[in-house]
Amino acid sequence: MPFFQYRDRHIYYDDQGSGDAMFFIHEWNASSYAFRRLNVKYLVNSARVVSIDLPGFGHSEFVEGLQFDDFSLIIQGLMDHLGIEQCTLVGFCLGAAIAIDMYHRYPHRVRYMILIEPSLSFPKVLLPLLIPGLGPYILKNIARNRFLFSLVSARLIGPDKAINELIFKGLEGNDHKISGHYLQLLYRRTRQGDFRNSDLDIQEKCVCITGENTKALFKSNANILVKQFKISNMLIISGTKHYVMMERPAEVARIMLQYMP
Question: CATH no. for residue 82?
């Protein structure tokens, strides 16, 4: 199992295929597992596909004092470790915010960004989870109670039972303090607006992929890319919800490769 060292902690990564590099960054409270299981097989014949487990998720150890800035440092460090000069970044949900932050800090390392159901503003429904002590307690109880989980997931994810079950299992298996810490990081970063800096030009560097029936929360995040960054490449996959990569893995992979150099 391959690991990269960051601040004396083991960060797991997967590296498959050959050619121009594609680097995948997963969503909140998850890991690269679903992407590796469902999507990589459609990509590795045409690209070198690297995916990472963010600190504290999947096989990666948590980094004490983790800040949002660490994510870009980890990605750049892993690229150096693997001898990758430039890559196409694929960011899903939270991963989209990390991808934009990476481009903001190290634009010469990012060839293009593929942002899937981006999370660029903090969901109001999750604000109670930011209360110190209370947030992890709520997450822990949601992970133990399918009824409570269904109330939240109906607002954030939608009615798909298979996808809800996958997310519930992920929440159940993760450290709730780490999950809460990640929400704090996303909240502070979206409040600060660093990755939405007015001088950040991603118009020609970005495509956004979203589901036709995704929740309004994620549609509003996609609209940030259109209104603020004026990107024109907005692709809506018909008949899909929030987890387009799981619902249409082959179709999404085809779109990803279309935007590779």
Answer: 3.40.50.1820
33 is a domain residue: yes
Please report whether residue 149 resides in a domain: no
- pLDDT by residue (tens digit) across 180-199? 889 889 888 877 654 555 56
- Domain tally, the chain: 1
Q: Which pLDDT belongs to residue 221?
A: 75
Residue 108 lies in a domain: yes
pLDDT at 145: 65
In a domain, 157, yes or no: no
DSSP notation for the chain: --EEEETTEEEEEEEE--SSEEEEE--TT--SHHHHHHTGGGTTTTSEEEEEPPTTSTTPPP-TT--HHHHHHHHHHHHHHHT-S-EEEEEETHHHHHHHHHHHH-GGGEEEEEEES---S--GGGGGGGSTTHHHHHHHHHHH-HHHHHHHHHHHT-S-HHHHHHHHHHHHHS-HHHHHHHHHHHHHHHHHTGGG-TT---TTTEEEEEETT--HHHHHHHHHHHHTS----EEEETT--S-HHHHSHHHHHHHHHHT--
pLDDT one-digit tens code per residue, 60-72: 999 999 999 999 9
Instruction: Print the domain residue range for 249.
Output: 3-123+192-258
